[in-house]
Specification:
Radius of gyration: 24 Å
Shape: elongated
Helix content: 25-40%
Strand order of the largest sheet: 6-7-8-3-9-10
Structural class: alpha+beta
Distance between the termini: 38 Å
Number of helices: 9
Oligomer: single chain
Largest sheet: 6 strands, mixed
């Protein structure tokens, strides 16, 4: 069992709450991704789990045991850092063997574990090289290998792919996911990259200003964000938010309107204004029952699709269109009203 529980966790720096009453359970063998913008507190949470940061209030439990006062080396966790944290004077073999030497394991057993890990990560031919002789992706695999040899209860990864180029990041995402499936242990992974979060995690915890906004599967968070922050943060392009008045059960955008169905009327009962949440890929629907015109600012061709940035009613609206579509100065955006989410313009929470 490698279950990790965070109970009412608070971290205070200079009388300011950096982490505000976080409650989170990471199940045994789960791959959980902590995602948020820079400075939101996600790395601080990871470092508190590792024991590298003190906790101001609350408890952290691993396998049901409170580890608040347990030294990092005794928590049976492995930490993969953003900057790899390899010893430059040591070979790849020596870097991977180092944590086992610290445990005073015998040389024969160390050799077996290091070579097994190296083979699984395609590092066998690099065992005698120094880190400076490796590419960024190879260094990251060495850092992963150094963690694997210890066979820890929990893997903690702090933005391990942020220093890699785009192509290598895609490759390493796949390798880390395969590694999790093979090792069958608990992974807690920190990133600010929404694509990593959506593609890698069994569940995602979205953090803003030290508070967990929503924890769920990628599918549920993407399609049912709890508030505008989550909707706007996850997804590329981000969700569009359009402020509109409700008059006689009708929503109007740029002189075009649609009538709310019965369920929508119940949800919005008593509301005079609302924020419409619309995903960019839903603005060119074949089965649309609502369309409105927008002014085109700029378009970007991405090969398989083009991203069109527009304005309507003073709102910036981003739409995903087919690559073959000719983009003029004006464009008609088409949507099925059943795919519109509604948010309170004051609280910014989903209605």
């Amino acid at each position: 069992m490698s279950k990790v529980e965070l109970k009412n966790i608070v971290k205070i720096y200079d009388k300011k709450k950096i982490i505000n009453n976080v409650n989170l359970t990471i199940e045994d063998k789960e791959f959980l991704v902590l995602v948020g913008s820079s400075g939101c507190g996600k790395s601080t949470i990871l470092r508190m789990i590792a024991g590298l940061e003190d906790i101001t209030e609350g408890e952290i439990l691993i396998d049901g045991k409170c580890v608040n006062n347990v030294h990092p080396k005794d928590r049976d966790i492995a930490f993969v850092f953003q900057n790899y944290a390899l010893y430059p004077h040591m070979s790849v073999y020596e870097n991977m063997a180092f944590p086992l030497k610290m445990r005073k394991m015998n040389k024969k057993e160390i050799d077996v574990k290091v070579r097994e890990a190296a083979e699984s990560l395609d590092l066998t031919e690099y065992l005698n090289r120094k880190p400076k002789q490796l590419s960024g992706g190879q260094r990251q695999r060495v850092a992963l290998g150094r963690a694997i040899v210890r066979n820890p209860k929990v893997f903690l990864m702090d933005e391990p792919l942020s220093n890699l180029d785009a192509k290598l990041r895609v490759q390493m995402r796949s390798e880390i996911k395969k590694l999790h499936e093979r090792l069958k242990t608990t992974f807690i992974y920190v990133t600010h990259d929404q694509t990593e979060a959506l593609t890698m995690g069994d569940r995602i915890a979205v953090i803003d200003k030290g508070i967990i906004q929503q924890t769920d599967t990628a599918h549920n968070i993407y399609n049912n964000p709890i508030n505008t922050f989550v909707g706007g943060f996850l997804g590329s392009p981000a969700m569009n938010f359009i402020k509109s008045d409700i008059i006689d059960n009708k929503i109007t955008v740029n002189n075009s309107s649609f009538t709310l169905n019965e369920e929508q009327q119940r949800k919005l009962s008593g509301k005079k204004t609302v924020l419409l949440g619309i995903r960019s890929e839903n603005l060119n629907e074949i089965n649309a029952n609502f369309e409105f015109n927008a002014k085109v600012d700029i378009s970007e061709m991405l090969g398989s699709e083009q991203i069109v940035y527009t304005q309507a009613n003073g709102n910036n609206i981003c739409a995903v269109m087919p690559p073959s579509m000719k983009i003029e100065k004006d464009i008609t955006l088409k949507i099925n009203s059943n795919n519109i989410l509604f948010f309170d313009p004051v609280t910014l929470f989903r209605i």
